[in-house]
TrEMBL record:
Keywords: Flavoprotein, FMN, Oxidoreductase
InterPro entries named in the record: Nitroreductase, Nitroreductase-like, Nitroreductase/BluB
Protein name: Oxidoreductase
Species: Amycolatopsis taiwanensis
Coiled-coil residue windows: none
GO-annotated molecular function: oxidoreductase activity
Domain of life of the native organism: Bacteria
Chain ranges of the Nitroreductase domain: 8-196
């Protein structure tokens, strides 16, 4: 698989089979992903890779909280500005509509939408997951470095025939994640990531992108 194929076949997959992801594969991916660039080579990522019993325990503890209607832990960072302005608001709405359409959920069916969100905390059935932390003393540029690192992981996973879904949703139940992985003091959970083989029987959305001219300006002679 070349890089273009990896980029275009990567998408947020939200239905996985229970086929295990071998630890050696995750080690291979993670040992190459650290070649991702970071400003002054700070390498600000701190990753926990969970498979088997620890992941099952995390899913179980989180499912109990979800079932109890627990709204989650105090947020450590804002996922989105409270008033999302144009064009971001429209793009977010369009993506949500495309996801609901693929799942066959009418937009007004709040219960079905809540169930779709809750699937995050079962890792959409995936047998492997990563949790990426950042030192709270680091700033926006280092958070951006982590984005590059996570995308590098997701592209390498494609080369292994695997799919993924990055998940800020795990920050909602971050204390339960911390109980299982025991991060050092002073670290913030930025993102989880479900990893596995795609359940190809599930419908999925190919989320559209804005036309290139909306986000790229060429200046040439
Ligand atoms: C940092 C980050 C966090 C995300 N968090 C979630 C999440 O918690 N749950 C989820 O289902 N998708 C999550 N996504 C996936 C996005 O919704 C998805 O990438 C976007 O809608 C574009 O779709 P595509 O990746 O399938 O092309 C996240 C993506 C990123 C980059």
């Amino acid at each position: 698989m070349d890089v273009y194929q990896a980029v275009s076949s990567r998408r947020a997959v939200r239905a996985f089979t229970d086929e295990p992801v071998p630890r050696e594969v995750l080690e291979r991916v993670l040992s190459h992903a650290v070649r991702a660039p970071s400003g002054s080579n700070l390498q600000p990522w701190n990753t926990y890779a969970l498979i088997g019993a620890p992941l099952a325990e995390l899913k179980k503890r989180t499912a109990e909280r979800v079932a109890a209607g627990d709204p989650g832990d105090e947020r450590e960072y804002q996922m989105y500005p409270p008033e999302l302005k144009s064009p971001y608001r429209e793009r977010r709405l369009a993506a949500a509509e495309q996801r609901c359409a693929a799942l066959g959920i009418p937009r007004q069916d709040k219960r079905a939408r809540a169930e779709a969100v809750a699937a995050n905390w079962d890792c959409f059935g995936a047998p492997a997951a990563l949790f990426c932390y950042i030192d709270r003393d680091l700033g926006p540029a280092q958070w951006a470095d982590i984005g590059m690192y996570l995308q590098t992981i997701m592209l390498l996973l494609r080369a292994e025939g695997l799919h993924s879904c990055p998940q800020m949703a795990w920050s909602v139940y971050r204390e339960t994640v911390a109980e299982v992985v025991s991060p050092p003091d002073g670290f913030i959970l930025f993102c989880g990531m479900s990893i596995g083989f795609e359940d190809t029987s599930a419908n999925h959305a190919r989320i559209e992108r804005a036309p290139l001219a909306e986000t790229v300006t060429f200046l040439d002679g």
